[in-house]
Amino acid sequence: MAATPSRPPANAFVRGMRKVYNPIGFTKGYNFTLFFIFGGAMLGFTLARFQYLSYSGIFCGDDAQNFDCYHYDKFTVQKAGIILHLAAVLPAGFLACFQFVPAIRHKAIIVHRINGYIILLLSLVSTAGAFMVARHSFGGGLDVQVVVGVLAIMFIGSLAISYYNVKRLQLEQHRAWMLRAWFYAGCIITSRIAWIAIASITSNQGYYYFISCEQLASRFLLGSQASTIASFPQCEAYFQGRNATLLVPIEASMTDDGPLGPQAALNTGFGGAIWLALFIHAIGVEFYLQLTPAESERLRNVSYQRQVEAGMKHPGRAGLTADRIGDSAVWVPEEEK
């Protein structure tokens, strides 16, 4: 039989990149590339938004042109919710990036475990904060409220399944569900791109966002009461004390000089943007998992060995595996094939 030809040596670029990603535990360039793209996006996004922890200074300061700040300032629960959400989700997203670094998982397992527990706690707290503000955040439409609920179920549900599997030493399922959880959570980053695109497409196309005259007066007073009434005659009744709950329509327009049109365009488009981003991420993570079967198989064999050592029943499938709860063929460890 002819000898199998040896693999040609890597070029200078690949050799150089291996010196970058091999020390942090990556053995394959495509894995490092995906980590660099998605992990880097998460890291950059969270770092850029740590400034929002200054609620009164930046997030809802005097210069903040944000419809939502009216509700946060008016309702104590809303303000507590957004502060709770930001204070938990930003460090959780930051710390989660390091959970996917192989060198930490393999050589600093205690760091990986402690960091994981901190992330789980922060994730629960941040989700509770998101529920507290869902009624008015980004317009608070039913599309926004429903997607917050769906995303919370997918995110926390995936974390719970991942946690169960790691306690059962089912490592490949722990990896898969943890990847799902953070891909779902990462849709908030992609939604920003879709958000701007949808707002631009729907701008000046007959879409309107309704706000109260009280909300308009509290943060978007157009110079004076007189100028505000000139632009929105309906608000005269509010300023005269005859109707405190009057609503006025603001056309969604990214081309307006003032903040009202662009804010209306952004609020009307957010629900659709987050739904679209969640769909993309939910499909994308399944593609990734299907394209990395070798890593899944390697981890399942490691799981088998650890479950045997721990004296568990059904080694290799002690967690939530398809052959344990479904009708697929029973998995066989590599040493028995």
UniProtKB/TrEMBL annotation:
Organism: Podospora aff. communis PSN243
Regions crossing the membrane: 29-48, 82-102, 114-134, 146-166, 178-198, 269-289
Keywords linked to the UniProt accession: Membrane, Transmembrane, Transmembrane helix
InterPro entries: DUF2306_membrane (IPR018750)
Protein's name according to its UniProt entry: Microtubule associated protein
Highest taxon of source: Eukaryota
Stretches assigned to coiled coil: none
